[in-house]
């Protein structure tokens, strides 16, 4: 997941044989797919569904076949009060390498960053 007050996207990056795909082929972007489905003002400051200046909840699920034999998709649900945005992507043929990892070897990584030029300038001047 990558998000800020103006954008939200989610994607899976599987790794096979020690090689990880840096650019996901299983990605849902609110500014593209979300705008088409919910409208361009659905998410963001004062959003019609999710106001990013207020608290909201995020739930991400990996979807599998009914017998749990293989993963096929990714779903993220954002809720705020009674409002909901569901971002779902069918990733058959791409995320199968996550099948074994989801059984106990997968790790979550959380980080924060910003790309403000003023911060880069401040760092260089220190």
Q: Topology of this structure?
A:
Blueprint: E1 2-3, E2 8-12, E3 15-16, E4 19-20, E5 26-29, H1 30-38, E6 43-44, E7 50-51, E8 57-64, E9 71-80, E10 83-90, H2 117-125
Parallel strand pairs: 6-7
Antiparallel strand pairs: 1-2, 2-5, 3-4, 8-9, 9-10
Question: How does this structure look, described?
Answer:
It is elongated and about 45 Å long. The strands form four sheets. The chain has a three-stranded antiparallel beta sheet. Strands 8-9-10 form a three-stranded antiparallel beta sheet. The protein is 14% helix and 36% strand. It has two helices and ten strands; from the N terminus they run E-E-E-E-E-H-E-E-E-E-E-H. It has 126 residues and is mainly beta. The protein has one domain (2-125).
Report the mean per-residue pLDDT as an integer.
81
Gap between N and C termini: 32 Å
**Strand-residue proportion:** 35-45%
Order the strands across the largest sheet as they lie in space.
Answer: 1-2-5
Question: What string gives the helices and strands in order?
Answer: EEEEEHEEEEEH
Number of helical segments with 4 or more residues: 2
Q: Could you say which overall geometry the principal axes of the C-alpha atoms support?
A: elongated
**How many separate domains?**
1
Describe the largest sheet.
Answer: 3 strands, antiparallel
Number of strands: 10
């Amino acid at each position: 997941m990558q998000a800020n007050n103006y954008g939200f996207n989610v994607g899976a990056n599987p790794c096979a044989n020690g090689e990880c795909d840096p650019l996901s082929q299983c990605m849902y972007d609110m500014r593209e797919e979300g705008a088409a489905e919910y409208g361009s003002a659905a998410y963001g400051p004062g959003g019609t569904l999710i106001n990013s200046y207020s608290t909201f909840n995020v739930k991400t699920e990996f979807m599998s076949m009914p017998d749990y034999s293989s993963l096929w998709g990714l779903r993220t649900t954002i809720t705020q009060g009674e409002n909901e945005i569901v971002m779902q992507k069918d990733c058959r043929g791409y995320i199968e390498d996550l099948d074994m990892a989801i059984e106990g070897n997968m790790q979550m990584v959380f980080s924060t960053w910003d790309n403000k030029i003023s911060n880069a300038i401040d760092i260089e001047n220190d």
